[in-house]
Specification:
Number of helices: 17
Strand order of the largest sheet: 11-12-13-14-16-15
Number of domains: 3
Strand content: 15-25%
Distance between the termini: 60 Å
Bound molecules: manganese (II) ion
CATH architecture of the largest domain: Alpha-Beta Complex
Number of strands: 16
Length: 499
Amino acid sequence: MTKEDVGKTVRVVAKIENIYQTSGPTIFWLNDGASRFTAKAFLRPGTRAFPEVEKNDTVTAVLRIQEYENNLEGSISSMEKTNIELFDQQMEQQRLKRLSVEQTAFLAESETLNAMRGAFENAARLIKQAIVDNRTIIIRHNADCDGYSGALALERSIVPLIKEQHGDSFNEWRFFRRLPSKAPYYTISDSFVDVVGITNEMLRKDQSPPLFIIVDTGSSEEDVLGMCNLRMFGSPIIVVNHHGFIQDHVTAHVDVHINPYLFGGDSSLTASMLSVELSRMVNKMEHVYLAALGGAGDKVNPENKEMAHYLQLAQAQGYGLDDLKKFALTIDFAAYYLRMMEGRALVNELFNNKELRSLWHTEAEKRINEVLHVVEHYIKLDDIGNKIIAQIDLHKIYRGEFPSYGKITGKTSDMLHEKHQKPLYVLGVADDMIIFRISRTETQFSLRELIDALKKEFPHAAISGGGHERAGTLRCVAAARDEVLAFVRGWIEKVPASS
Ligand SMILES: [Mn+2]
């Protein structure tokens, strides 16, 4: 039932879940297998209508749909008891319908997406099953533009189905949560927050453990323990990610692992694109511009085949590439201050309220211009012939506000690319980490290979890290930072020129 149905007369087969006599009409709580709703019948004030119908009976009723205090309800014109088989048949049909995956073509033409169809369908089925089973769905996503865009697409397909399942707007808060993660992987800290929630909920006997959807993170070895924690308490897990890995440690621990690297693709199919495609299989999700928004946030080449498709779709919804880039910066600004908060209503404002976006975008730009002035003064540039290494000491210029370390490094890289024609290796250096932003054209450089070499060379340095091939973060103990940095610079000098 939707608002468009107001005024219509419908015939339903339903189960009576409860009956409530007011001082006016009698109120029946009906469940037709698709949703729960209330219907009123009125004889005389305070007099029980249809006294032969009792709780748990199945009935055939004719209702006129009306709106009452913003909710839809029925006004009963006739109602009689019917046999339970008819209701059971209907329940089964409804259940199968709600579990069926939307048969829809991918928005973008892509061999990689085509190869991934089975994984997408499995994920969509798991999500639909969770909704039908009243299982809570928790999205954990990277707190950047791509992560937010992907998670929002999924939220916008899932939440309406949860509302439909329960026939009210209260349960969308109980059965769905979207939580940003600060680290670029599913950390043990995040997983502790989640398993505290799961074990508390387990005290309620009717509650199944939640389904987790991990978006724009979740494909590296560092994610595994957190996931094992979830699995220990029976949670199913879906990963929707586009970060590369040397070895796949994750697939064995999750129900569905959607990652283009497993299907011959690469990171140009961003988490937002994958999530938009998945959302459309779960429910009709119309905000398809979110696909290109994540792509713009992750700086995917606009000429890339899939990205070009998504950009066209975004354009049709009123967002050109420049609008998307501004939007992306605004999300980064908001994400910085939202930290781990869901802020569902505020995030909706961010996506729907142009004025608010403009306020935050202006501030974000101002802060970035300020920090770039500082960077210009203190940056160390080394021209080593066929490339430039640029080093910023982040801990000396960061002021505990937006922009973050990662954003400072990224924006520095953008600024330097406008001034220099040579390939650039921008290193944002802090006490215990190095952030990399390297020219897209430097295809001979692989951050993962560098991290592997560092692990062998400095077994005492607790090396970890990840991200993309040419944009990512390397961590080590602070004591080892100087020797690690020297090795990194030596490694970069030896990278052969890309053709
Ligand atoms: Mn991403």
